[in-house]
């Protein structure tokens, strides 16, 4: 029985309907833009729903799922990224990014010294790009340390 694509298709249709419904909460356009900002999300939602319906009607063969060890690694990486989102505000950008990049790097290639160097290097490099090249208002370190 081919269930995976059909279950995923139903989930995507529900997300697409929520996406379309949320688009109706956007403000109306002005006199220069008659369509307003609602149209693009609605078109994307319709495309999502149509693609999902195609998955339900014509599913592929049942896939070979990865081993439990791989799924556990994916869950762990997801938990680390969620924790990262919560660590950014109180601890600044550099420290949480270095820690998370090191953890994820270690998960890819379990060499502690290399993972630590990659974490620190990626943190510093991304900070420079985001802060100075893209002009984002990042806080480097915790505000308590910055004064």
From TrEMBL:
Keywords: Membrane, Transmembrane, Transmembrane helix
Entry-linked InterPro entries: DUF1468
Residue stretches in coiled coil: none
Domain DUF1468 stretches: 7-137
A Pfam family the protein falls into: TctB
This protein's record includes keyword GTP-binding: no
Name by which UniProt lists this protein: Tripartite tricarboxylate transporter TctB family protein
Species, as recorded: Albidovulum sediminicola
